[in-house]
């Protein structure tokens, strides 16, 4: 009787999960060539309801401080905070940024982008500070439409807003937030600037069109994340490439050319809505 009860509860749990909106996702990380031994200074957190990417600010290395400790602790703590009170943060990831900032007491700083999904209504919510960000794509027949592209938060060229301990970071209230109405199988690309400094929006769109499809599994999304990350990496070490980073540098009066070598972290997620998921089954 006890075994029957446990099995019945597990069936109910699975059915409940299938009746909620969620993220299917894949992840790829490629550290900077000189930082491979420690895994780079980016960090991420991902589950079916929350996606996050943080980029530890490399300048701290000059003071003998490992930037990865801050970004990794930040992602670990925000995951714990979210799981402790999902209802509070599900539709307000900016509050999660505000509340996680004082929990990290290591010297360092980091950019951060968060996206949450409303498990009942067809919306996602985002908040970010700095130049880690995201894009949203939607299939229109076999082609992709670009639904949203973030604007990086910079104080000046290559000087992003960032979270840190007290005077070492910016006020988390400076983080911006958005609410997006979503459709089944919309695609999100959430990444650190190692991606966006080396690939523009149309290049990312073309990679998805050539390697993705309308309904993807987690393995297929991992493969797509790998394609985007590998492309960003190849361009990052190409000194003959007119990268998005070099174009921005020229706009700011800095004469430089080529890709920008950096840590690369990308999450590719696909929206799965409860109603449409049932119809596919």
Automatic annotation (TrEMBL):
InterPro entries for the chain: PPM-type-like_dom_sf, PPM-type_phosphatase-like_dom, PPTC7
Segment forming the signal sequence: 1-16
Keyword Protein biosynthesis attached: no
Superkingdom to which the source organism belongs: Eukaryota
EC identifiers of the protein: 3.1.3.16
Coiled-coil zones: none
SUPFAM superfamilies: PP2C-like
Keyword list, A-Z: Hydrolase, Magnesium, Manganese, Metal-binding, Protein phosphatase, Signal
SMART domains named in the record: PP2C_SIG, PP2Cc
Protein name: Protein phosphatase
Species whose genome carries this gene: Ichthyophthirius multifiliis (White spot disease agent)
